[in-house]
Amino acid sequence: MQAARPPQRLRSGRGSRRQSPVAAVPEAAAVDVLPPQCRICWLEADVEEGGALLAPCRCSGSSRCVHQRCLAAWMGAVAERKGVHAARHCDICRARYAGLPRELHLREPPVAYLRRKALAAMATPAGTAASYYAAAGMAFSTAWAVRGALLSGRWDAPLLSAARYLQGLGVHLAVGWAQAHAVGALPWPLEPAAAALCASARRLAMAIEYAHMGLLLLFGGLAKGFAQGALLTALAPIKLAAHAAGALRHGACAVAGLLPHVRRKWQRRQRKRWQAPAQQQRQPQQGPPTERGGPAALV
């Protein structure tokens, strides 16, 4: 009886490839096809509410599908942290979500929309220049307001308003500190009454502050000076544009006045250039003296 032969090994050569036992298994049996899963909770689709899998962005592979409820929770968290505009885009592929149900359509508040557009406009070079100009205008207006207060010559009413304003500010800060630290240490029957009293005192102090601030601006000449400074700052670009337009107009008039002179000079040069060959053709050619008179002329 013949002994069993050992399995032959395939040698690798230049014309043959090294084969492994895995290569002999069909691909359909070697690779298990997994059903789509949610990229957040790693679960499959279910029949519960919001359990349908969506493919709202350009991501592929294991990040392609996501549960509707998981996407809703994720968009809500992103909207609270970064805003509605950021929640509408995928944080992986940066594409805007498309084909979402009506429940996932987020509405951006008008104030947030205007703030986002303003920040985007300020990020441009023109917006940055405008913001710097506005800051310079505010500084100029404040300096002009102080100048108006110094030139007004009336110091009794501004000083009284400033003292009352500082008094109201001190009361406001003291009541705020007491409401934040001391009211919580009181027993329960006294705590609500003390909190209401502190809130009323804070409102009264704020009213005193605003009233005396208005009086300070009115009697101290600050309001008039600030208005004048703001008006001058707003009119400065218009004046600059008017001066630039005037300079351009004067330059255009000067160029228009020089054009006829340049044109006449160019015409004279062209006329002389064409007249010179004609004059040379009209004049007879005179040879040397030996050729005109011959030998007799030499004697």
Automatic annotation (TrEMBL):
Location of the region described as Disordered in the Swiss-Prot/TrEMBL record: 1-23, 269-299
Boundaries of every RING-CH-type domain copy: 30-100
Keyword annotations from UniProtKB, A to Z: Membrane, Metal-binding, Transmembrane, Transmembrane helix, Zinc, Zinc-finger
Protein origin, superkingdom: Eukaryota
Low complexity composition-biased segments: 1-10, 275-285
SUPFAM superfamilies: RING/U-box (SSF57850)
Single GO MF descriptor: zinc ion binding
SMART domains reported in the protein's UniProt record: RINGv (SM00744)
Stored Gene3D superfamilies: Zinc/RING finger domain, C3HC4 (zinc finger)
Family matches, as CDD domains: RING_CH-C4HC3_MARCH
Record bears the keyword Metal-binding: yes
Transmembrane domains' residue ranges: 210-234, 240-262
Pfam hit, one: RINGv
Annotated protein name in UniProt: RING-CH-type domain-containing protein
Species this protein is from: Chlorella variabilis (Green alga)
